Amino acid sequence: MSGASTMFVQQRPVGLGFALLIVLLYVFLLVPLVTIVGASFTAGLMIEFPPRGFSLQWYREFFGRRDLVDGLLLSLRVGAITAIVTTIVATMAALCGQALSGRKGGWFQLAMTLPLLVPELLTAVGLLFFLFKIGLGKTVLGLQMGHILMSFPYAYVSITAALRQVPSSLDEASASLGATHWQTFRMVTLPLIMPGVVMGAIFAFINSFDLYTISLLLKPLGGNTLPLALFDFLTYEFKPTAAAAATISIVLSVIGVALVQRLVGLQRAF
Amino acid sequence: MATVDVKNLCKRYDDFVALDGVSIAARSGELVTLLGPSGCGKSTTLRCLAGFLEPDGGEMAVDGQSILATPSNRRGFGVVFQNYALFPHMTVAENIGYGLRLRKCSGSEITTRVHDVMSLVKLTGLEHRMPREISGGQQQRVALARALVLKPKLLLLDEPLANLDARLRDEVRWLIRDLQQQSGITAFYVTHDQSEAMAISDMVAVMKKGRVAQFATPREIYQKPVERYVADFTGEANFLSCRSLEACGEGRMRISVGGAELDVDCVPSLEPGEAAELLLRPESLQLATLGEDVTFRGRIVKSAFLGASQHCEIALADGGVLKLTTAPNAPVRIGDEVGIVVDRSHAWLMPEGTK
Amino acid sequence: MATVDVKNLCKRYDDFVALDGVSIAARSGELVTLLGPSGCGKSTTLRCLAGFLEPDGGEMAVDGQSILATPSNRRGFGVVFQNYALFPHMTVAENIGYGLRLRKCSGSEITTRVHDVMSLVKLTGLEHRMPREISGGQQQRVALARALVLKPKLLLLDEPLANLDARLRDEVRWLIRDLQQQSGITAFYVTHDQSEAMAISDMVAVMKKGRVAQFATPREIYQKPVERYVADFTGEANFLSCRSLEACGEGRMRISVGGAELDVDCVPSLEPGEAAELLLRPESLQLATLGEDVTFRGRIVKSAFLGASQHCEIALADGGVLKLTTAPNAPVRIGDEVGIVVDRSHAWLMPEGTK
Amino acid sequence: QSDRFIVNMFGGRWENDWRQHVMPRFAEQTGKPFDLDIGLGMSWISNFRAAGVDNPPFPAVMLNEKYTAMIRNDGYFEELTPEKVPNMADLIEPAILKGKTAVTGMLAPLVLAYRTDLVKSPPKGWADLWDERFKGQLGLYKITNSAATMMALWAGEHFGSGRDDIETAIAKFKELAPFPQIGYSAQLTPLLTQGQIAVAPIDVGEVKSMQEQGVPIDFVVPEEGMMVFDHSFSVFKNHPDKKLGEDYVNFVLSPETQLWMAENWLIAPTNKTVELPEELQKWPLQADVVSKAIRFDWDETLAIIPDLNDLWERTI
Amino acid sequence: MIKARHLRLLLGAPAVVLIFVFMILPITNMVEMSFRVPGTVEPFGDDYTLMHYTRVFGDSFYWGILARSLLTAGSVALLCLIVSYPIAWHLSKASGLKAALLYALIASPLMTGVLVRNFGWMIVTALNGPLNETLIGLGIISQPLRLLFTQGLVIVALVHVFVPFMVLPINNALRNIPDNLVEASVSMGASRYRVFRDIILPLSFPGIQPGLILVYVLAVAAYVTPALLGGQMVTYMPTMIIAELTGTFRWPLGSALAIMLSLSTILVVGLFTMLTWRLMERARA
Ligand SMILES: Nc1ncnc2c1ncn2[C@@H]1O[C@H](COP(=O)(O)OP(=O)(O)OP(=O)(O)O)[C@@H](O)[C@H]1O
Ligand SMILES: Nc1ncnc2c1ncn2[C@@H]1O[C@H](COP(=O)(O)OP(=O)(O)OP(=O)(O)O)[C@@H](O)[C@H]1O
Ligand SMILES: [Mg+2]
Ligand SMILES: [Mg+2]
């Protein structure tokens, strides 16, 4: 870094141009989000940015709409279960993957990330047929399985990365001090991979919260997830309520991230 | 407080033979060092003992009882790792008390025992620091304390000083030796630093490609190595090819070397007439002053001031080079013709070996 | 082939003063070593010279010309890093040829120059290996070759041997010294290993917390240190507190120590009556044999066999401890009463210092 | 028999209104709690097909006739009669669909909407879409939407040899390209609102809500006749709650429900006994207007659709 | 100890079951489906045939759509790389709280649903939206641009969505490049540009390659964004597949198309991996 900084000192114009570029890129990342949040507070009747005045009317409208609120609740529930189950299964799988070496480890890794590598659509349609075959068609459980499947790779990758940072000598040290495998896991490994585990859970949750195609095909009778409800809403009405709903999901995500920050520290989590 | 017997230990990694019949033993309270270059199998041996690896063959016994079937966490050995392997999420005190906690000791017992061992290794006051907040030397001592607090039967140390700087190394080395002797714990110690091995061991096993080349006391290893490899690895050495002429007494041999004939001690199994090499340690050579009995003559080709001493290299007439050490202020000038006096009682004859 | 002048170099990292007025100089073709404990500012000095850091004050000149305004990539110095900093994605030959490529040399010129320098550092045959496929010692030589091939005005080496094991270190150290002398390149060399510094330097700068404590030849640094810190850092040392009684000639002083009165050399600035410390290097002490002029008496409290020698510690009657080195086979038993002979020409008196 | 009565409905506003204003009355009638399965024709059909004839997930279903036609010959549906569904007796005649497996419960008129500020002389009929003055200002549907299908069939008939003259139809639409192709009529709303397009065939309900938001917009009923989205209701033969399903269809066809839909959604009633109130007279919901709408035979249409879609995708 | 190792392998069982039962079996099902004859009553018949594949592979129309899908995904991946690289570089130089904030910023698109983001783009690109207003305000354009339902917007939105997937691995790779490699190269006379070209770029490739692959795979299969922002002006494979599977109910054909898409994605990724294998090998420290 210091080498580069010296170079900056000597070639300031490039540095300035670069800084400008970086700012523009970050703006690019933020623009749609800022727009939505802004638009959700409009006092006008149309979705627009900058908003026309300030009002909370669209939030009131959102919470008055059962279709949207029910969607939010279902999404939260499915997301929470997905996060918990996925994290447990992925932690176990990551421990297993660590014990596999070389070629076998590579295949295992590939298998675990398969849901990410196959187009979601193919999985979704395949699952639709399959779930009806085994009697889980149009049930919350079926939807849940689809979400767990699609969120699994994110948790797996995050936890595996964390596990790779734990030197095997710590396991050995713990064993040499008399710990059983379970004790080593609980007292040494788990605390050390916690940032990765929490990050994995958050990723799984966020991913589940965002799944569209899978949910569209697998959704249970009488249920709609928030993205589906929002899509339907946007299909028939183009009102700032949608911006309010979107803002609420953004806020939920931010709360999630803040939670990670409190629990494990964000720097360690990535 | 335990005797250890390792017999004919073998271990393969896939196709690669890492241990090829290693036998070593430790008497109760002894410190045994495994010495050898990188990759010779020192860590592998230790890890088999610790139970982290399962040997493919051979026997390991502690106090006469085989430990092959005992899992690592029930062997009751203390292990100290090269990079300390401290638990980064626990304070110093928690690290040290971890083993006691596993043994379900009471809180107050843990506190006292941790406190005692911490004052033993001079860490008092650092209880609540995290491992990353203390220096390398202190970390090393935490690792040691963590092993010692459990009063292990056997202490296994894998290059415990490798990550310390020269001055700290010295300090911690003596600490380890003192603690080991005070508590009378049997210990295995892995290093590739010969001076470390020499300084603190009761016995040294010099390892070579998965085998033990020589297992003996430090003095014997240094002064009476069984082969060139051992001599080479245990300190600076000069080797001169020579012809062995005839035996002249038990373990002695007359040889002809560099134009001179000498009687020297030799490896017992050596036969007269065999090609042999003469080992001359630098400290058994001296530049001749007037009137001394000069054995070799040559010209100084290199010299370096080392503070406590000077290092010279002298080219002999027949092309060999002898390295030797002189007092720091002796006048050595490159190019000078000099004579060399050999301390014959410290010359040693070995069978000619591949290096 | 360049003279270097560093004057009063200062560098701060935020609030922390890393360099606090460092002045050193190198004559053409000299090898100057920066020696000091971790964190004393050795690397910082070197990195200022290399242009990786901008000093906050002071002057650096090469051949009389200030280089402060020259960016790093136009200074034309060769830099060798502690962990080699080889480009992992280039073969050995590509690594060495990289600088030539940047200079737009023709392909054939690159090939010959790379080939030449590789045979100089004895790497021939490894051209197409990747850095990770060669040993540490070989990597070190690649790093060296990569700097040398550009025929730099000045060679900067930051702990180039730190990652090598003891035996390799010796080999590469001599290689560096030989190459530097053959090519006559001026060099700055950073290390915290005193024996390394002693062995290969023309001049040594001993650094202490961002300053130069002493800048002199290795011999002077070792034998006539200006303060205890320098003596301590440059080798094993015994210090005895004493009273200086009176000057007895240019740079000599009469002192009273441990019950004896001695005439010894001293730091020129020392005034009679000042509190002072006597430096006795272990090699200027000897166990007394019969009839010798014994200076001190004491009891052996520790001894260790080191192969080429033995290390003893002797407790004096007044509580001081003297460390000394004896021949490997001298009979030393812990508890023995012994007399100690001092080589007075190598005793050295310094002002009393904080350690 | 399940403990809840489940039927399907579109999402968004449809779902919300159906849940809050319509279904409670039916639940009161039957004394059974209800739930809605939200989705679209294609997802319901996927589900019924995946579930198979013997296991329909719920008893009664609302579908576009396009989708009804897809499975009505597969034996999914019960034949409906006035005995089972008394209100069938009052239906306008075209509302009873082929094979009596379905009855149209909602007719949503599709008209031509235009921005009054952007369009100087409004279009009169479908053919005006090809007029130079609207070039680049049109918003149309993607071919998977039945509106696009209907318009293509109409174009085949109008410009070519008949409804099955898909080559001509596609060629005519090619002339209009590029134009935004929309999945659902409400997706045209933001485009019209923002003025990104000026003319589009759209559900009258959307026109009304845009007018309420203050968008300068108006509509014409095309002179060739408007088109309609028809949502038909069917009952599954193999569902244990079949009887409830029939009651539900009857409930939807009842004058109260029909009037409610007309007032709130601008849906044209199919029950002849419904009297439209004064304020609804300006919208094209009256039985005589509706009867003049262009209608299609979806069995025939379905046979054409694969080729039509194919050609559309390839050409436009 | 053998037993302990086996126990550890057993931990993988739930995950393997999950993947096998809910992923591999259903997809095998789909593969089988793609060989069925089209049905008259049901979406597929009982007999097997290759006709869907001969049809799909023998028709330049499908090849065209496939090529468009693959090319679009390719340009999304490349653009994403261009956008992400400076961000990753900037991020890799940050530490402490600043790094945490930047991470949060970069991850923010991930944390808000696809739908939400797309919706945001709709507002941004509205005729009277902020983008048009800004551009007009800056005098760059005089007439508002119609951006919604253009292919450009689809690509921009996809790039936006995938930036985190690209930034994180590249940031990782950049962080693993020791500073002294840069210094070494500078000391040998390298300019800023040469340092980047010769050292930074090749050594960050282990981050670039997985980033490109991941973004490519995700972009090929993207459905919602093109559907929502593209206005169907151009057809991509996923839209086609959805239409066949859920619109016209030609399941065997739809399956065949889905499999064609998957196979060609795998082929492209495999080819790319092979072509860049040497670069990866070299950069692996
Ligand atoms: N897990 C493994 N798989 C394959 N080979 C291994 C493995 N562990 C060690 N080896 C090989 O076995 C040999 C002995 O390794 P070991 O770690 O015992 O050496 P060592 O003497 O401790 O060396 P060092 O001083 O470098 O630690 C080495 O050549 C090493 O390459
Ligand atoms: N980038 C930095 N920011 C803040 N402080 C620094 C930085 N780099 C070095 N320092 C501090 O400056 C002092 C001198 O550092 P320098 O690297 O020169 O030491 P050194 O003598 O080379 O030590 P070592 O032998 O450990 O390499 C150290 O105390 C170090 O903590
Ligand atoms: Mg080892
Ligand atoms: Mg340094």
Automatic annotation (TrEMBL), chain A:
What topology does the record note for this protein and the membrane? Multi-pass membrane protein
Question: Where does it reside?
Answer: Cell inner membrane; Cell membrane
Residues that span the membrane, as ranges: 20-47, 68-95, 107-132, 192-218, 238-260
Matching entries from CDD domains are given as:
TM_PBP2 (cd06261)
Q: Name one Pfam family in it.
A: BPD_transp_1
| The keyword rRNA processing is assigned to this record | no
Q: Which keywords belong to this entry?
A: Cell inner membrane, Cell membrane, Membrane, Transmembrane, Transmembrane helix, Transport
This protein's GO CC annotations: plasma membrane
**Record-stated family:** Belongs to the binding-protein-dependent transport system permease family.
- Spell out the protein name for this chain: ABC transporter permease subunit
Annotated source species: Jiella pacifica
From TrEMBL, chains B, C:
Supply the alphabetized keyword list. Answer: ATP-binding, Nucleotide-binding, Transport
Q: Under the GO molecular function aspect, what terms does this record hold?
A: ATP binding; ATP hydrolysis activity; transmembrane transporter activity
- Write down the Gene3D superfamilies for this protein, in alphabetical order: 2.40.50.100, P-loop containing nucleotide triphosphate hydrolases
Q: Which residues form a coiled coil?
A: none
Domain ABC transporter span(s) in chain numbering: 4-234
Which Pfam families does this entry report, sorted A to Z? ABC_tran, TOBE_2
Recorded hits in InterPro entries, A to Z, give: AAA+_ATPase, ABC_SmlMolc_Importer, ABC_transporter-like_ATP-bd, ABC_transporter-like_CS, Mo/tungstate-bd_C_term_dom, P-loop_NTPase, Transp-assoc_OB_typ2
Q: Which GO terms describe its biological process?
A: quaternary ammonium group transport
Q: Cellular component per GO?
A: ATP-binding cassette (ABC) transporter complex
Its family? Belongs to the ABC transporter superfamily.
This protein is called what?
A: ATP-binding cassette domain-containing protein
Q: Which source organism? A: Jiella pacifica
From TrEMBL, chain E:
Upper lineage = Bacteria, Pseudomonadati, Pseudomonadota, Alphaproteobacteria, Hyphomicrobiales
The membrane-topology field of this record reads: Multi-pass membrane protein
What is the protein's given name? ABC transporter permease subunit
- State the CDD domains in the record: TM_PBP2
Taking every annotated instance into account, which residue ranges of this chain make up the domain ABC transmembrane type-1? 66-272
Pfam families the record matches: BPD_transp_1
State the species of origin: Jiella pacifica
Compartments (UniProt record): Cell membrane
- Main localization category: membrane
Q: Which family does it belong to?
A: Belongs to the binding-protein-dependent transport system permease family. CysTW subfamily.
